[in-house]
Write a structure and sequence with these properties.
Order of helices and strands: EHHEHEEHEHHEHEHEHEHHEEHEHEHEH
Number of helices: 15
Radius of gyration: 24 Å
Length: 433
């Protein structure tokens, strides 16, 4: 490549919005460093060609003080929106915006001297991501994930990049059609505890299906253990739920956990389908998000996929590090092809806030270049008494996952029937904005 030549690129870019802290000058310097780190990973002064400098290196589109500098809250939802950003931005800072609000008066938090939080929008050429989900994730957050004080808030992907991703095969509408349910949230539960035999779990699955649970999944701790072999468990549980469906006239689905080593994952999914599974449970934090994409795109498997958050929590906890909740559990999980995303709801035994949960639910269903919206699945110690609040908060297009509380008190099938009654008579079924 000669010094005056150019690269044959489309000029289209995608955007990553990061949250950084420091003075305005410190944040701008760090943003410039991210532009280099996430693309060429090379000293700027040593870049050998102007074309690489202007066409490959990320560009800063905007630096804006966060609303939390004024209000004490983080307004980011972590949602992804599709866009076709202007490709003319050159390497460097194009705007240093003031904080939004009704007052234009000086804010000491956003001065050059006072540290505060900023949202920094950086745009990368779509060609840097290639056509691979793994490389897209690498450009968005690969190396900077190793640095403290960087949080990826949301992304904006143009249609030219989104065309490479099939996304969910079923989503909300497809799963409703498969179950024949149009007017209420879906009911989900897990087969547990670990240590029960396949026969015992199958009996439990039968009673859960008789009680009206729509999706009955393995607990994510069930794998292929000697006390509960995968093939036997799947066969017995699928048969038990099919028997219950014949009796009730309803459709309940069994979703075995197929999380497995890379060289066994697809074979396990195929065996689950052959043995009558109605869907699959996968922990992409353990297997990798791209394994989820591969399963969702496999026409020979073609089953709804429920994503479990195991091992993902460490990527999202803390306001100044990792990935925003809506982005991780909503956007990226949906882009990878999950039809439903489990996350710990507020009011349970985990630490997610109502605002973080709402961001996940919003990102799961926000418009995204034709990709199907997916089911938000609040979970993590939910109880029957919380059902009215959950329905009001998450809306009709949600899947409520209650596990241990179904086994408390009266007989299991009766508790499931009570769960169904609570959902059906719950008040307003419209999610909060």
């Amino acid at each position: 490549m000669t010094p005056g030549s150019t690269l044959s690129l489309s000029g289209e870019r995608f955007t990553a919005v990061y949250r950084l802290s420091g003075t305005a000058a410190e944040v701008e310097a760090r943003a410039r460093a991210i532009c280099l780190e996430q693309t060429v990973e090379f000293p700027e002064a040593l870049i050998p060609n102007q074309a690489i400098r202007t066409q490959i290196v990320g560009t800063i589109a905007e630096i804006e003080p966060c609303s939390s500098n004024r209000s004490g809250t983080n307004s980011s939802t972590g949602q992804t929106t599709s866009s076709s950003p202007d490709s003319s931005t050159s390497h460097g800072t194009d705007s240093m915006s003031s904080a939004s609000g009704s007052s234009d008066s000086a804010d000491p938090d956003s001065s050059d001297e006072s540290p505060c939080s900023f949202e920094v929008s950086i745009r990368y050429p779509i060609e840097t991501a290639g056509r691979e989900f793994t490389q897209l994730l690498n450009v968005l957050f690969g190396n900077v994930a190793l640095q403290p004080g960087v949080r990826l808030q949301r992304i904006e992907l143009p249609p030219a990049l989104l065309q490479h991703y099939q996304g969910p095969r079923f989503g909300i509408a497809g799963l409703r059609q498969q179950l024949g349910i149009t007017d209420r949230p879906l009911l989900c539960t897990a087969l547990k505890p670990m240590g029960l035999s396949p026969t015992e779990l199958a009996e439990m699955a039968y009673r859960l299906a008789l009680g009206g649970i729509d999706l009955i999944k393995d607990d994510h701790g069930l794998s292929d253990q000697t006390f509960c072999p995968f093939d036997e468990r799947v066969s017995r549980c699928a048969e038990a739920i099919a028997r219950a469906n014949q009796q009730t006239g309803r459709t309940s689905l069994y979703l075995p956990n197929i999380t497995a080593p890379a060289d066994e994952l697809n074979a396990r999914a195929e065996r689950a389908r052959e043995r009558g599974a109605g869907g699959l449970l996968l922990c992409p934090g353990l297997t990798g998000l791209d394994s989820l994409r591969r399963l969702a795109a496999d026409d020979q498997i073609a089953l709804p996929i429920l994503s479990h958050p195991a091992l993902l929590g460490g990527l999202s906890l803390g306001p100044s590090q990792g990935l925003a909740h809506g982005l991780l559990f909503g956007t990226l999980t949906r882009l990878a092809g999950a039809d439903a995303t489990i996350f710990p709801s507020f009011g349970g035994r985990f630490a997610f806030t109502a605002a973080e949960c709402q961001a996940i639910a919003a990102a799961a269903k926000a418009p995204l270049a034709g990709l199907a919206p997916i089911w938000p699945v609040p979970a993590g110690g939910m109880r029957l008494e919380q059902v009215p609040e959950l329905v009001t908060f998450y809306g009709r297009d949600s899947m409520l996952l209650i596990g241990g509380d179904l086994h408390a008190g009266e007989e299991l099938t009766a508790r499931c029937q009570a769960f169904l009654r609570l959902v059906r008579k719950a008040p307003e079924q419209t999610p909060k904005d």
